[in-house]
Amino acid sequence: MKLDLLVRGGLLVDGTGAPPRTADVGVAGGRLAVLPAESGADAREILDAAGLAVAPGFIDVHTHSDGIALLGGGRELVRAPVVAGVTAEICGNCGSGLFPALPERVPELRAEASVGFGGDVGFWEDFAGFAAAHAAVPRANHIASLVGHGTLRAGVLGPVDRPATPAELATMCSLLDRSLAQGAAGLSTGLIYTPGTYADTDEVVALAGVAARHGKPYVTHLRDEMSRVEEALEEAVEIARRSGAALHVSHHKTAGKYAWGRTERTLPRLARLRAEGLDVTCDVYPYTAASTHLSAMLPPWASDGGTAALTERLADPGQRDRMRAAITEGVPGWENTVGNGGWDRIAIARAPRHPHTEGRTVAELAAGGDPFDVAADLLLAERGEVMIISHSMVEDDVRRVLAAPYAMIGSDGVPKPGGRPHPRWAGTFPRVLGHYTRDLGLLDLATAVRKMTGLAAKRFGLAGRGVIVDGAHADLVVFDPATVCDGATFAEPLLPPKGVHTVVVAGRIVVRQGEETAARPGTVLTP
Description:
There is one protein chain. By secondary structure, the chain is of the alpha/beta class. The protein has helices at residues 75-83, 106-117, 127-135, 149-156, 166-182, 201-213, 229-243, 263-275, 307-314, 317-329, 362-366, 371-381, 395-403, 424-439, 445-452, 454-459, and strands at residues 3-12, 21-28, 31-35, 43-48, 53-56, 58-60, 86-91, 142-145, 147-148, 187-190, 218-221, 247-249, 280-284, 289-293, 346-350, 387-391, 407-409, 476-479, 500-505, 508-512, 515-516. The strands form four sheets. Strands 1, 2, 3, 4, 5, 18, 19, 20 and 21 form a nine-stranded mixed beta sheet that branches. A six-stranded parallel beta sheet has the order 9-10-11-12-13-17. It has a three-stranded parallel beta sheet with strand order 6-7-8. Helix 5 (166-182) runs parallel beside helix 6 (201-213) and helix 14 packs antiparallel against helix 15.
């Protein structure tokens, strides 16, 4: 049989962790065949990969790319991970997504989503609607989605600070069950974010139990990644044990000055849990800065009732004083990012009506005045929609998590039009391969690739992906191990990487010599 494509003479890094070896890789009908080196196989196109590595397509296990492909003006953002070798993105993380909801709540949630993404991206009652919308928009790589608990809660209760009633919880479980049955990849929580933070442990246990019945993981942004990170990790473990769901800890970190170094305790704890039989993994991005909404710097009660209620409070001097005091004094059970670091570590990433603020810290913008008022004024002027970059971690902790054998790679990219997004959206995977693998020797090549491919596919049930074996889906990356590196910086966050030569999705070349082609074979994946 004549192959569609033959990748000849490359260093095969197959995604299993096995030592690299020289081999040919054939593609026919969207599937792979591993052939001996110099096989002489016939193909419609032959790619000479001598001196290059051939790996499975990278799987970004943690993105917030739910809606960006649906916006006509988001081409540069959509392109960024593809040219970095990412052939599949898993969105719906941190409890936030674009489905599901009761039909009567869809219009208000659609309006909120449109503000957040800077354009009309839609909102759907279930995963089937979300999947149909994405299937109708040609894309270069694949996408899968988790069900976001915060979105689910808002879609049943609204953005309110109160416990769910038994009937409301039953409705949430039913909506979750339907979306998981339709092909959503698992349940995610963002327990520092409203309205997810308003939920107690029992509510999450009930929902995680639905995921467990579908054999899908519970994926969590812990309730605290700072001074109470160990306590928050134990809550996640309790949820996993009581529900029976596999546990995946999102972007594991110990952030803020009071938690620096605590990976020396959290990682051994995870290792012990695994040795005891708990199915627990995590992901990590290779940077010491995070990115989120500026409103997350405020105490949770400030957002009770949603964006409109938040802006009303920000306009009230008395409410501002309450917020200022909460940041200074802390609130029980709240991850206080500013209190754990300071306004000098919080830089504005996106403020569409105030672009002069982007790239500058809140402390710099205050110029000796009260930085809280600067933040509050900006939130009020932007109707609550401001993105930030928080320089909250230390390098030693990042390296420890990267090296953990059960840690995989996720960018935590938040692609929205405009501003200066975190460079992790464009730079994560080349940075791991270049800086941490080749330059620092923290990982060997086979281990680094497995973290980006086989380990990720196994965790999220992406059968036939993440490995180069006979019959696997034909998603490939061809890169130069000697030169691959990230180009994205905080000043220019969408610069493409170096050393990523070719990207193949579903058997078709979507990146050739570092440049995107016109091919759009990406699909919606349903584990």
